[in-house]
Task: structure prediction
Amino acid sequence: MEFHVPNTVSFHLSLLILVAWSSVQASHSSSLSSSAAETISRFQHYLQINTSQPTPNYYQASDFLVSQAKSSSLQSQAIEFVRGKPFVLIKWPGTNPHLPSILLYSHTDVVPSEIDKWKYDPFSAHIDDNGNIYARGSQDMKCVGMQYLEAVRRLKASGLQPLRSIYLAFSPDEEIGGQDGAAKFAESEVFKSLNIGVVLDEGMASADENYRIFYAERSARWLVIKAIGQPGHGSRLYDNSAAENMMKSLESIRRFRASQFDMIKAGLMAEGEVISVNMAYSTAGTPSPTGFVMNLQPSEAEVGFDIRVPPTADLESLERRIADEWAPASRNMTFRFLAKAPVHDEFGNPFTTKTDSSNPWWGLLQDAIQRAGGKLHEPGIFPASTDSRYFRRLGLPAFGFSPMANTPILLHDHNEFLNQEVYLKGITMYESIIKAYASYVENEGNRASTGDL
Ligand SMILES: [Zn+2]
Result:
């Protein structure tokens, strides 16, 4: 792998120009220092690059990220595991290359926006009078990617020499499943050569003052059930029509869904701890020029569900339920899965990251956040999917953390925003975390590193 070393002279020059420029531009963030205003303006720049699926401008994003790496004299490269989808890898080399490295992971793509439902253009990165930065990706997750860069920039400027190498990865395609992004990276020779010991990836905003951290995530099961039966006149009551059998299933699925949701409503379970079932589509009926034939009972009905299972769920019992109650062959029903992500390894160990004393990275993370003045909720299970799954499947510890407290959860929503103060505070969290991770030596590694130094 070839990393190129940037020209530090031009870096200093461009920084001077940037400082001069940003002091003029910082009008609506007058409460910020000039260096903070400059930091916010770099974040805005990244947000203004339209990396919205399904046609993300990946090259513009990767050029920007590489230029950011250069301006901090960091090694960088854009790798195309898949043509047209650059994956940016930035390296801050550690003084002991034998120790496992740290991976600070983020994705560059964002979900589409319904522009007319937004107060401001989702790629304007407009800052309102409250300091809220409106942009698609402001929470999910360009904030985190830039915060890593800013934290590294500051630590490097402070003279810190990391013991372990720090890698920043900016991956394409997370929002469409990560097949051409994280999946390709995780199975690559490049990945193996990095000798990664721990991964940080995205989490979620927290409406209160405590940050949320995730040690696992639910897995998607996309279920399609189909009923077939005798067609008949719309006026007739008879048994075993496709629609009648489908209605029985829907009743049963709705009861199960309610039982899961009730546990959340009662405060007994968090969202990530229950099995969610939501209808994605339903098709049945005989089309007519004006819609559907209304006096005809159809011979087929099909319904699709998005199901999310926590890593600890009893999957056998869920599949039995599907076979016996939701799509029983006795009612002329069949089912199939369009997606069925694994939840555990071949030995039945769930893909979770330990949050106890057996995992030193957990203690370091907690302490580092608290030392920087952050407060934490109990660690939880991320309710949806992230690219962390590709790393947890390899047996690597991975934490989902986006430092956004006192912030409404707006990922994938209209008017996604992040307050500039929250963003800046997040950088100090990462400074603390990266410092702790970069300097960490196990007892074993301690002896080894003493020899190297
Ligand atoms: Zn995301």
